[in-house]
Structure formats: structure tokens, C-alpha cells
Write a structure and sequence with these properties.
Elements: E1 2-6, H1 9-14, H2 16-26, H3 34-44, E2 50-52, E3 54-59, E4 62-67, E5 69-72, E6 78-81, E7 94-95, H4 103-118, E8 122-129, H5 135-141, E9 143-154, H6 159-165, H7 173-185, E10 190-194, H8 208-226, H9 237-247, E11 251-258, E12 261-271, E13 274-282, H10 291-306, E14 310-312, E15 328-336, H11 338-365, H12 372-378
Parallel strand pairs: 6-8, 13-14
Antiparallel strand pairs: 1-3, 2-5, 3-4, 4-7, 5-6, 8-15, 9-14, 9-15, 10-11, 11-12, 12-13
Helix pairs in contact: 3-9, 7-10, 8-9
Length: 379
């Protein structure tokens, strides 16, 4: 196998056709999609202080393996997945099973080459699913840092039977959701839309531009009201979603409208036979009508009608996801870099343990009925 290193944006963009051909053969996830990663690189690369550190494996003229890495320079330089730390829910390599060497042999070559090309760096390979091609290699050769889960729904049978099965998660899930739809409908003309890339002639039908702008505004309002910083607060990420909406054919945008006004948006992807439920947003003025749950209902119905096989809630064990499923896949994050990497793992785990202890002490000492400001100070 011939090995090639790609270390700049131009080289990464130039490999698109061969990369996309490998995607079709290797069956990777959205987070290894070249268009998705190139949008990230072009819109946020400078803001994230990153550059490609991609390793390609060729058998003759055919691309057979990709390690989609990037070098980030936030404090101590470290190597992670292309896409950085904010959008890659599943990290992995792309690998054709018919390659002339094994995936483990390819990864041995990858890290040997990266040490020569980049010098000594930390490796942070996050969110590696247990069924990922690279998982066993990382578990043997890197230091385990943390675990996460990703809930999903396998779409078997029909939508009506699936709705009936939800009783085991929440007794009145179906009736409550339908009741909320009825409540919203009583306010005006209520519709669910799959948004097209181009604006329709019908002004009542939202286009991608309108939906993305509503999505960005709703997310930012949510961050302001909760005080929790999200991806869209970082430089370039609003543009990333705008570019993806207009240029990535896998992008899937949907929304709920009330008298033409967008009250909820979901920005996700339909990639292969899998729907990725990634970024929901809604107008908090309508929170009492559960717009997020209603939109999820419509999306699941849509996926059943399209013959989609998996509705993937992606990274995170948020409670609302378990109103729709009990299935999940485990994933782990790994740190490498010799002694420095092991010290980093110990430091991070120690910091998390200290944070938990301080939080527990704070809860014990804050009097009942204390203000949120007092809680924040104690934490």
C-alpha cells in the first residue's frame, strides 16, 4: 500500500472524488463525509486554529484507506479527528475491506508517519463507537479517557406499531404528542415542512435560507437564556451550517410553521440508510406546546415513509431521547502521546472528580430556597 500525507486545505479539497468513492465502499458515518468535513475546514479552520493531518492509503490508483485527522493548536498542539471537537459525534477511519493490508497495519503506519511529519504531539481521538473500525486498535494502543452513549431507533415494522411501542417509555407519549399538535393547530395554520435547498415561489413555504437563519437565531436565544455556550457561539459555525444547507446533498432540514412563521427547526442529515438527528431548535415562546417533541414525531414518521433503517439520536444521553428508544451504542475517547498523554488523562480525570466533589459539597451547604446566583458561586 502506498501512503500519502495531506497537510493543507488545498490538498484536502483536491481528494474529494476519490474520498467520496471510498465512502460508498467503506460504509462510514456522516462524520467522515468529505463534503461535511471540507465545509468545516473552510468555514471554521482558522477560528479553530486547525489544519489537515490526513493520511491516505492507496492500492494502485484506488484510495483504500483514510485517517481523517487534523492538527489543532489550542494551547498545547494536539491531533484529533478532522472536524475538531464540536461536530464529530462518531470518530473513525475509512477503510475498504479489500485493502492489501489490515486496518490495524494501516493505523500502525499512520501514527509512525504522523510522528515523523508533525513531531511529538498529543493525540485525542474522541467519540469512537464500539463498532468502529478503529476501536480495538485504540483500546490496545492508547489510554482510555471517557465513555459516552448514542441512542438510536431501528426502524422496523410500521410507524403505527412503533408509536404503540412507546408506551413502555412514557405511558401517554402518543396521545400527549397528538394533543400538543392539536393545541398548536388551534392557534393558526400549522404545518411540517421538509425544507428544500432553494427558496420556493410560495412565500408560505420556507426555503433553506429562512430555515437556517431561524435555526441560528433560536439556538443563540437558547444559549443566552440558559447561559450554556454551544457550538454556534464559536467563530465560523453559523457559516458552516449555511454552507452545508446549500451545498451538502445529505443535509436534511425540517421545520414547523405556524401561519408561515418558523417555530421549530431541525438541522440533521440523511446519509445512506441512516437519519442523523443532530441539532434541534425552537422558539421558546412556544415551549409549552412541546415543539421539539412534535418535530421529532414528524421526522420519525417521515423516516418510516422513506424506508430509512436507523433514526440516530447521535452523541448524548439526554433524557428526551429515551422517550423514543431504549437502544444505544457505547463509545469511548482515547488519549495518546506517551508519558505526557498519560499525565493528561490523570489530570483530566482528577479535575472531573474534584468538580463532582465540590458540586456535592455545594449542594449540602446551600440553604433550601437559595438563589441561583448563590448556587453558581458555590459551584
Amino acid at each position: 500500500m502506498k501512503i500519502e500525507f495531506v497537510g493543507d486545505s488545498a490538498g484536502f479539497t483536491a481528494i474529494s472524488k476519490d474520498w467520496e468513492s471510498l465512502e460508498e465502499r467503506a460504509g462510514g458515518h456522516l462524520f467522515q463525509n468529505h463534503r461535511f468535513l471540507n465545509s468545516w475546514l473552510q468555514t471554521t479552520g482558522d477560528g479553530e486554529k486547525s489544519r489537515p493531518a490526513v493520511v491516505l492509503g492507496w492500492d494502485g490508483e484506488r484510495l483504500m484507506a483514510v485517517f481523517p485527522g487534523c492538527l489543532m493548536r489550542s494551547g498545547v498542539p494536539f491531533l484529533t479527528w478532522m472536524g475538531g471537537l464540536n461536530i464529530v459525534d462518531y470518530g473513525d477511519i475509512l477503510f475498504d475491506r479489500n485493502a492489501s493490508i489490515s486496518a490495524d497495519a494501516f493505523l500502525d503506519i499512520v501514527f509512525s508517519l504522523l510522528r515523523k511529519k508533525l513531531g511529538f504531539h498529543l493525540y485525542y481521538l474522541h467519540n469512537v463507537r464500539r463498532d468502529a473500525r478503529a476501536f480495538n486498535y485504540f483500546e490496545r494502543n492508547f489510554t482510555h479517557y471517557r465513555d459516552e452513549v448514542a441512542p438510536f431507533v431501528t426502524l422496523v415494522g410500521d410507524f403505527e406499531s412503533y408509536l404503540d411501542s412507546l408506551r413502555k417509555f412514557r405511558k401517554n407519549m402518543r396521545s400527549d404528542t397528538l394533543r400538543q399538535m392539536k393545541r398548536i393547530s388551534s392557534l393558526g395554520a400549522f404545518e411540517f415542512h421538509i425544507v428544500k435547498a432553494q427558496q420556493n415561489d410560495d412565500p408560505a413555504f420556507p426555503g433553506a435560507v429562512d430555515a437556517v437563519e431561524a435555526f441560528v437565531a433560536q439556538k443563540r436565544r437558547q444559549f443566552e437564556e440558559t447561559g450554556v455556550a454551544g457550538t454556534l457561539t464559536r467563530p465560523g459555525y453559523d457559516e458552516f451550517y449555511r454552507v452545508e444547507a446549500s451545498e451538502n446533498p445529505h443535509a436534511h432540514i425540517s421545520c414547523l410553521t405556524l401561519d408561515g412563521k418558523i417555530i421549530a427547526v431541525h438541522f440533521g442529515y440523511l446519509y445512506g440508510d441512516r437519519f442523523y438527528y443532530l441539532m434541534p431548535a425552537y422558539d421558546p415562546s412556544y415551549a409549552k406546546y412541546s415543539p421539539g417533541r412534535v418535530l421529532t414525531y414528524f421526522l420519525l414518521e417521515h423516516c418510516y415513509s422513506r424506508g430509512v433503517q436507523v433514526f440516530d439520536f447521535a452523541l448524548g444521553a439526554e433524557p428526551y431521547k429515551y422517550e423514543w428508544t431504549a437502544d444505544q451504542v457505547e463509545e469511548s475517547s482515547f488519549i495518546g502521546g506517551g508519558i505526557l498523554g498519560k499525565f493528561l488523562v490523570l489530570a483530566l480525570k482528577g479535575k472531573k472528580a474534584l468538580s463532582r466533589r465540590l458540586s456535592a459539597v455545594g449542594k449540602e451547604r446551600i440553604p433550601r430556597g437559595a438563589s441561583q446566583e448563590a448556587k453558581d458561586v458555590m459551584h
